[in-house]
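Bug report (template v2)

What were you trying to do?
Predict the complex of my protein with zinc ion.

What happened?
Run completed; filing so the output is reviewed.

Input:
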Amino acid sequence: MIQFNVYPDGKKRIVTFSYDDGHKNDQRLIELFDKYGVKGTFHLNSKSLITLSEEDQKAFGERYRNHEISCHTVSHGWPSKIPSASLVGEIIENRKALEKIAGYPVIGMSYPSGSFNDNAIEVHKACGIVYSRTTLSTGKFLLPDDFLRWHPTCHHKGALALCDSFMNNLDSEWTHPLFYIWGHSHEFRTEEDWREIETVLQKISGNDKIWYATNLDIYNYMTAQRQLQISVDERTFYNPTAIDVWVERDKKEILCIPKGQTVTL
Ligand SMILES: [Zn+2]
């Protein structure tokens, strides 16, 4: 039996961070992320960004270079409370502004104030958004069934309490392998707050059983994994994507199917 429970380099656990609103504290948080080798996704509004000079916009984008820039609407409108046409503008104009500083297609999102409904999700899809995070923390290490209803594990204030549970089970057969922490960097108001997030980072970083990924890395990898073409006897694989993909066979073998190749293993 083939299982899609393996991530890049044969790892079986994933850690990701997701921060909203684009506060100046992002700079310090990113320095911590870089120090500990983890990846973050930063969901940014663009209302004030577009008032900056070209040079300042460039410098702003540079801050996020090792991480992912993602949407959060132009002006933090609530997707479930505004007309569909306004929401289209909030997303498309946000994408345009962010793509200018990011230099790649910005196709991720977190719903401002966690606001979404079925109609808002359809509008997001039509605007090319492929995943969006909610604010509904599950307390669990779930991968999303639906990337446009991507519920995180916890807000960073609850992360320390869950670190040991995650790290003490790295070798178990969990089907829920993702520790997803979200928050706002403007919530780090005191040195005590910064010490707490650094303690979380110390506990969960630097482990070769964990893939440290942005939100979009996870979306792209899982989407590629689902595109694998597999023979009935589960020996021959074709990976039509541009991403190397790993799977587990019969709960004992970890197989790599290189991008663009057909292999018999
Ligand atoms: Zn927000």
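What did the reviewer find?
The first strand starts at residue 2 and ends at 3. The chain is about 30% helix and 20% strand.
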